[in-house]
Design a protein that fits this description.
It is a single chain. This protein is an all-alpha fold. The chain has four helices and no strands. The protein has helices spanning 12-36, 45-63, 83-99, 101-128. α1 packs across α4 and α2 (45-63) crosses α4 (101-128).
Length: 129
């Protein structure tokens, strides 16, 4: 295969900047919708955010098989598995983490919106009462 036919891979720093920009854009979008929707008469958005966030978080954990191979080497896995099976499990875990990363781009901004809303609604009362 000719190397020139491959797409150039962005370096790690560029990829991290892109992820931060996507996270910031999602946070801005979700936060704006969260606070704008009630003024437009749509009061169900917090429940939708909660449902979508919970379902995505549950899917993320199940899809990644409970993170059972995270930070493990072939030596840490059961000895009754062959070396090829252990290496396959570790490679499969890494592949699953990489392919499900998109869900974090939705889950994390939703959590941040709920955190900001909690701080906005509850902490000032505790400080001043």
């Amino acid at each position: 295969m000719n190397r020139s036919s491959k797409k150039p891979q962005p370096d790690q720093n560029t990829r991290q900047k892109q992820l931060v920009l996507v996270l910031a854009a999602n946070l801005l979008l979700f936060g704006t919708l969260y606070y704008l929707a009630p003024s437009l008469g749509f009061y169900h958005l917090p429940f939708i955010y909660l449902g979508v966030g919970a379902v995505l978080a549950l899917w993320y954990v199940i899809y990644n098989k409970g993170f059972r191979t995270l930070h493990k080497t072939a030596d840490m896995l059961p000895e009754e598995l062959s070396l090829e099976e252990r290496e396959f499990l570790i490679a499969d875990g890494k592949r699953r983490m990489e392919s499900s990363r998109w869900a974090l781009l939705i889950i994390l901004p939703l959590l941040a919106v709920f955190l900001v809303d909690y701080v906005y609604l509850n902490l000032p009362e505790a400080w001043f009462s």
